[in-house]
Amino acid sequence: MDIALALGLIVLLVLVLASGFWIGMSLLAVGLVTMLFVSPRPVGDSMVLTIWGSSSSWTLTALPLFLWMGEILFRTRLSDNMFQGLSPWFNRLPGRLLHVNVIGSAIFAAVSGSSAATCATIGKISLSELDRRGYPPSMAIGTLAGAATLGLLIPPSIIMIVYGVAADVSIAKLFVAGAVPGLLLAVLFMGYIALWSLKNPNAIPAADEGTTFMTKLKASSKLLPVVGLILAVLGSIYTGVATATEAAAIGVLGSLLLATSEGSMSWSSFKLGLASACKVYCMIGLILAGAAFLTLAMGFVGLPRHLAEYIGSLGLSPLALIVALTLFFLVLGCFLDGISMVVLTIGVLLPTIQQAGLDLIWFGVFVVLVVEVAQITPPVGLNLFVLQGLTKRDIGYISKTVIPMFALMMLAIVLIYYFPGIVLWLPSLM
Length: 430
Hints:
The protein is mostly helical. The protein has helices at 2-18, 23-38, 43-55, 62-74, 78-86, 98-112, 115-132, 137-148, 150-153, 158-167, 171-199, 213-220, 224-238, 244-261, 267-301, 303-314, 318-333, 338-355, 360-374, 382-391, 395-401, 403-418, 421-428. The longest helix is centred in the middle third of the chain and has 35 residues, at 267-301.
């Protein structure tokens, strides 16, 4: 009977989500219907208590602050300054200015926490500049699509906050754990650009002449404000001076000062940034509330227990479990955004993960990496749609350009599995 109810719940959820109804409301509706059938408790009381418990976490307060920080910086001249500050340093490297996509995305990821925001912001300036200079569009688009996913991994990451709340693990440790894998992924992307350029030397424009060391230093001065902001936010977390929430407040204050000092802050842009951050957080909050209530309903049905028992009965090794979960998340990522994937699955999967003996901090980074891959897989790869809007090219062409990035991200997943210290070394020092 429990298995039949569990299967019915899954089918109902798929049907409601497929209807195009808001994700958060879909989760609430399915949870409500399930509770009416399986729970003797007053459904209204259960819903109110569960939603309040999921939304009143102190840890969750970091989320709207980091969102607001990203929105403020999105409206500054940050992307222009980054391109001007970085481009002289890569003029002589194989691949030249294509590396700006990767480094620029890594820097902006460290102050935005959003993959889509990173893709849109860096793409607005770099794609037109690279096209003007004659760089291959496939490489410009592909490397940007892949590099923009660093917005999910390099702290502060919005999805890491969501995972930390869902799995009840330290967000500060998650942030620290994501730093080295994020740098690893950036190195892999830059390595691919260099190798491709050496193999196709005629496809890369000639280097600019006359770039002296002093010119490079002068150009790099444009990066000092954002580097200072990154150090203030992440340094306060790494050193233990501030919690993730306090660091987010530092980031908001720093971004406001940065925007004001360069003349980008006006009353209009302030209101737009605040309103946009509120809208995004309300969307995420509704999804989290719906997911919490649905998780409660699934607990009454027994779905987590049945799933854990079933996977346990298969006798999967940790490697086989990770392979199965990777495929599961990739399929799920074709239909859902990253945050929805996390809040829908983590509550169900945690017993299984703990039973397999996997570290929850390591698993959080693994989930973020897989969600990153889902950001560039059709038909619902968010970065692909952002790039489609920027380039006006069809989704099929863009999907082909990201295949090498997809392969490199899968390689990163393999590396962190066989070398878990890549993830766990920095958190172990805290």
